[in-house]
Amino acid sequence: MSLSKPEEQLAYELSCPICLQLFSDPLVLPCGHNYCRSCIGKSVVIKDQTPPRCPECREEYQGFESLQRNFKLCSIIEGYRATAPQLDWQPDTVGGEVFCDHCIDERLAAVKTCLQCEVSLCSRHLQRHNEKEAFRAHAVVEPLKELGMKACATHRRPFEYFCSNDMTLMCSTCFIEGHHYDHDILTFSAAEQEMRAALESRCKVVSFRLKITESVLQKTAEEQGASEAIGDKLVNKAVAIMDSMATLVDRYRERLHVLLEEERSLHRQSWQYGINALEEQQQQLVEVQSKR
Description:
Blueprint: H1 5-13, E1 26-28, E2 34-36, H2 37-47, E3 68-69, H3 71-83, E4 93-94, E5 97-98, E6 112-114, E7 119-121, H4 123-131, E8 140-141, E9 159-163, E10 168-171, H5 172-176, E11 185-187, H6 188-290
Domain RING-type: 16-58
GO molecular function, one term: zinc ion binding
Pfam families: zf-B_box (PF00643), zf-RING_UBOX (PF13445)
């Protein structure tokens, strides 16, 4: 159901300048400006000013405890919620698209999501959001569908701090209540810088070790190549020596064979000569004996 321009203007007037949502337990400052109790309390904690100032007009006031609840505004908001409950919608999506939480007549696509305010904003409402000095330090990211993943499950507040001791995220209420007392608590920006510095240092160490490893690998590869070359040379030389020795052995065998054959031939001739002489002598003796 779309709303008329008067209803849209009324919703605008009943919205907290910090969170841009309908006032929740509004407190009135001496200057006349109203804020949600949690929003102005959070502003006091973050700014840490003495005395604190109004986020809009910068007028000083005595402190958070001195602020009074605006009962009349509470009644107006309760009546308005009863007649226009559709205004208090949650971020929704159609076909995966995230819509602005503050558009009333026509819901425009969101261009950013504020993690502190837990709202998604179109370009027009984002411009108004960024015009507020109290919002300029908010973490604004690409449109998110599931804001609950970025909020504290206990206090339903967006994460704003990081505990280095426990390596956990914290909301402002966790910080105020002292759940991580005496721990090293950092804002997201400080934690990012610290982690980035640690990551850069780690990357330098890894890069240095990588260079050493690559140098050792290259040297090992070169030594292996030299060793392979020496091994190939030794193998070739050994094969050549063995081939040469085999050739010499073959030649020696052939020469020895020839010498042995010649020696045997001489012995045969000598024995044959002796046999012939004995046979001739035998013949002569036989002839002498027959003449008697």
